[in-house]
Design a protein that fits this description.
Helices cover 33% and strands 22% of the residues. It has 280 residues and is an alpha/beta fold. The protein has 2 domains: 246 residues, 3-Layer(aba) Sandwich (Rossmann fold); 31 residues, no CATH class. The strands form 2 sheets. An 8-stranded mixed β-sheet has the order 1-7-8-6-5-2-3-4. Helix 1 runs parallel beside helix 2.
Length: 280
């Protein structure tokens, strides 16, 4: 079972959605300003947002060879592949990604690498998969492959693994994240908080030669925002805060803690099924 909480941030740009989510975690004491934080697929927006939120111990990473440590002061910079991080398990309190996993060849692998090197939790912001976003793709408003990002990065960067090849825009669902995390770490229930926001891709729409889609979205904007407010999962973007089970988190009843970690609770099994069969 996954413990969930869901809310909607109305009318937010992705930048303010990012900032509001981190600030909420700080206010609630889930995240502290002196926590060690790793950002994967990071950039200047991460630097500015986390600095504005008051975080002090941040490492921003990416596979973008154009980036240097000088551009991310006062934070650290590290060249890291989100799908194969070089850090040890639990090296950071939190690991954050903002609209970056869908640039990976395997977004799920990137998510699990984030989970591995985090000791407390993971915060991710990504596109959401639902009927609305799929309809938007069919109408040409949304993109199935992110060629606009490549176009606005000198046709050299911004695609899959930051190459010139436009990436497929992988959109997650709540159920998909629940299953991925529970499968990877099946020792206890996880708390996963979801927040949704509607993001209109104004720049790509306005940048097209054909302005029909742009003006159509302008006219439909109030209805789009109303629908997202009434039913948040209709939004096209979301944040997921995955809290890792701690030492005080109750394990599943068929497990128990030992000096070496977690092991099978044989007493629970025998009480449920009877004596363990002799298979020798």
């Amino acid at each position: 079972m996954v413990k969930r909480s869901i809310r909607f941030v109305a009318g937010s740009t992705m930048e303010s959605f990012y900032k509001q989510t981190i600030q909420k975690l700080l206010r609630e004491g889930v995240m502290h300003s002196d926590h060690r934080v790793l950002v994967v697929c990071g950039g200047e927006e991460d630097r500015d947002t986390l600095k504005a939120c008051g975080l002090t111990r941040v490492v921003i990473s990416n596979v973008d060879e154009r980036q240097t440590a000088d551009g991310f002061a006062p934070f650290e910079w590290s060249y890291q592949d989100a799908e194969n991080l070089t850090y040890e398990d639990g090296a950071f309190d939190f690991v954050v990604v903002h609209s970056g996993l869908h640039h990976c060849r395997s977004p799920h692998r990137g998510l699990l690498e984030m989970y591995r090197v985090a000791s407390r939790g993971v915060v991710l912001f990504e596109p959401y998969d639902n009927v609305v976003t799929r309809l938007g793709q069919r109408l040409g408003i949304g993109q199935e492959h992110e060629h606009a990002a490549v176009y606005f990065n000198d046709c050299r960067y911004g695609g899959v693994r930051n190459t010139e090849i436009p990436n497929y825009v992988y959109r997650f669902t709540k159920r998909e994240i629940d299953k991925t995390i529970q499968t990877h770490d099946p020792v206890a229930d996880h708390e996963i908080r979801y927040t949704f926001a509607m993001r209109i891709p104004w720049v790509p729409l306005k940048g097209r030669k054909n302005k029909v889609f742009y003006y159509a979205v302008v006219l439909a904007y109030p209805l789009i925002m109303l629908a997202s407010w009434l039913y948040p999962p209709m939004s096209n973007n979301f944040a997921a805060v995955i809290i890792k089970p701690g030492s005080n988190t109750p394990l599943h009843p068929w497990l128990e803690r030992s000096e070496d970690g977690v092991r099978l609770n044989r007493t629970w099994l025998t009480e449920r099924y009877g004596p363990i069969p002799d298979t020798v």
